[in-house]
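Weekly puzzle thread! Below is a chain. First person to post its structure in token form gets bragging rights.
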Amino acid sequence: MIDFSQLDKTIHEKGRLSIMTLLASRAEPWAFQDLKSQLEMSDGNLITHLRTLEKAEFISGEKLTGDGRPQTLYVLTAAGRTAFVAYLGILEQILGLGK
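Winning reply:
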């Protein structure tokens, strides 16, 4: 039997799952504005989810300044990648039950 309590509640929320999926999809960092555009989220909604993931140490953000306006780039941390892979493993088990 699958232990559904193993689903990480930090990742399981739709917005945070979307963020984690995008960050896991490529090695390069994602800029805040690119995440916002891709996910079609408001600034406030996205920032709230990003802060939750940062607090869990699943992602890290780096603010860049210089020419033009500042931007923040986000990447998965090693802990975030490990948590995401574990989360996907549980989902695969659940999907296997449905077949």
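Puzzle host: Confirmed. Bonus trivia for everyone else. The radius of gyration is 15 Å.
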